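Bug: token stream looks shifted between consecutive jobs. Job 1:
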Amino acid sequence: MADGFFSKLKNRLGKTRTGLVDNVRSVFQGRTALDDELFEQIEEVLIQADLGIDTALSICEEMREAAREQRLSDSDALIEMLKTRLTTILEQGNHTMNWAAPQGPHVTLVAGVNGAGKTTTTGKLASKLSADGRSVILGAADTFRAAAVEQLVVWSERANVPIIKHQEGADPAAVAFDAAEAATARKLDNVIIDTAGRLHNKVNLMEELGKIVRVMQKSIPEAPHEVLLVLDATTGQNGLQQALNFTKLIKVSGIVLTKLDGTAKGGIAFAIQQQLGIPIKFIGVGEGIDDLQPFNPTEFVEALFQA
């Protein structure tokens, strides 16, 4: 993560920092004893910061035990312990994107609910790959929303990459198949498929994702190599529920956590990692192309704890 983005991240995580780190620090003010009441208040802060009940309880229990065993009386030592524990949670799994397939085009499927930022994420990823010298094709498989196709066309022109699109209402699986076929025929490096936003409780729409995968595999048997689930950080615990439902129907390999700027709910990153065990691969902190960056767990936590 470049220094410029770290500064931006630190700035844009301001509300989450206030709700999480600053509020934990405030619990220690005026206290001389590390008693049960203090840990209960820390627990409450962590839950309110969208870390989730299970994550908050386990962190506080570890802090309580460490304070007892190590006879800690210093709040700074406990703050440092919290920082280490949060980093450990986020470090689980492989956060690196491998954009190359063993043979043939590499396929990435982008999924999520309406409004999470799937189409924008798809466009930004295509732009980054193209800028890195990789040949990319986009598949506009969100055929339910005309604006999504138009938006992706703009991104394809901006990134100077081809796009496969059908008329509005067409079979999304057919679009994905044609994109995979075109990529193979043209010997392109990457295919990125933008899928329709779907409510996690609409079974027929969710099952359509499975159809897209099955149909694409007729062209590229290993496809998709990556399934990125785009979650809107401002939805907090609702985003976690969305992710749980998606993972029941499709194997998600990574999370893209968008809209971290301006929300106090960035703590959801820890709940996602702890409860789903799916690594966050990218984070978004704004509208610009450079506001979407590969996720670095250590620097994310560092940005939260630096004033």
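Job 2, same session, no restart:
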Amino acid sequence: MSVVTPQACWRWAVVAAAVVVLAALPPAVAALPAGGSAISAQALRARIMASARLPYQGYAESTAGLALPALPALQSVVRLLDGTTDQYAWYRSPGHWRSEQLTAVGEDDVYQVGPATYQWIYAYSLFTRTAGPQPVRLPRAPDLLPPALARRLLGLATAADHFSRLPSARVAGVDAAGLRLTVASRATTVSAVDVWADPADGLPVKVQISARGAAQPILTTSFLQLSQSRPAMGAVIPHPAPGISIADTQPAVLRGVLGGDGDGDGDRTPFPAQLAGLRRDTTRAGLFGLAPYGSGFSEIIMAPLPYRAGAEAVSAATAASATAVPVGPASGVLVRTPLLTVLLVVTQFRHRTFLLTGAVTPALLERAGVDILARLAVGPR
């Protein structure tokens, strides 16, 4: 039988206490109060918008509660915008970066290598390469990384919107200065966008989106770990495992799938110049089959759907407990979430259904739907 002396007990107590202190250091450091910054709101916004070339690597978590219905063929988008997304990111420059989204079965990766985009989906052992820009695509995990999301949202601000400073916060080891964008338009569901960024260089580290009438932010994305260092080139270049080949794909071309392209010919539905008092934006290239109206957070998108696609969309929305609404002399199906709103207007015009969507109020989409019907009644203008 061994005997433990009082001295040995004391030594082991000291060791145990040291281990506890070391284990508590990361959360304790994170809990330290952030140092304040005197930078102005406009100067902070300018630095954030100029931060696209700043390198970084880290781990981010995004939580969204848009309460989207379970729509067929859009499960990945629903999970992205109504759940928690964890991802690692390696960012060298706008043309060389990688995102690794952690999933229940493995990982899904997106690589940007110059003009080409590579995507790896673990569940299907599928590696694809898309050459050139993709003007129209579904949301994906790297869109939720704080730097990308912050620049995109702040870029939507109009002259009527207001910027103000928020208290600083310590995020992933960064004493981040806070910035609030208060949205002026009452036609949008977005109330405010809060961004925390490194005041020295403008790198965003946390973003929150608040909807009108909501007590808590609808979407929050934040770095949990961050190093503002440039990752090695090997970290952002795809390296498929042996036996995995890369399939080439083309950017999604929606002409012929959607119903209109604005050219006014006899086979298509030309887009109106205005909807609900919003002018059509004709400056964006590559939006075949889609038309944006308005600007900023009040923008709406119109897409004429041919008969089969329209019928499938209406059926899916109805199954997801959408609301039937009258739109002038026609019928409509409304899907409403705290941020996004979708209206499907069913018409007899060439058996077309018109899809209208945006981070806007149902009233604005219904006005746009009435305008579409009025335009169809009098012909092109």
